[in-house]
Amino acid sequence: QVQLVESGGGLVQAGGSLRLSCETSISIFSIDTMAWYRQAPGKLRELVAAITSYGSTNYTDSVKGRFTISRDNAKNTMYLQMNRLKPEDTGVYYCIADRWGVGAWSSWGPGTQVTVSS
User: Fold this and answer.
1) Average pLDDT score over the chain
2) DSSP assignment of 9-60
3) Tens digits of residue pLDDT in 81-96
4) What is the pLDDT of residue 35?
5) In this structure, what are the phi and psi dihedrals at residue 99, rounded to the nearest 5 degrees?
6) Which residues does 100 contact at the CB level (< 8 Å), separation at least 6?
7) CA–CA separation, 4 vs 7, rounded Å?
């Protein structure tokens, strides 16, 4: 079972920044895609950003230009740098890791709370 642990959440004022981390229990080279999702109270979980093993990235429109997803292969860790935060960015942020093909699996972290005050 692959374990993911998020950290870096907290309370920040609008316009501020946070950096989330997602550390994996296995070599990140064994993972094809990693992503950040978030879930606001009363809303469905939504994709925020994703990154492949080749370094390709994609973002939901609402965070483009403000958030940056990256991965540090040496530290087996994925990051989400969040700048110019808005109250609507508030929610629980989850990281997910996927392995494709034979023996495919998917694993979620427990989440970290991000609260942006106005």
Assistant:
1) 96
2) -EEEETT--EEEEEEESS-GGG-SEEEEEEE-TTS--EEEEEEETT--EEE-
3) 999 999 999 999 999 9
4) 98
5) -120, 130
6) 32, 33
7) 10
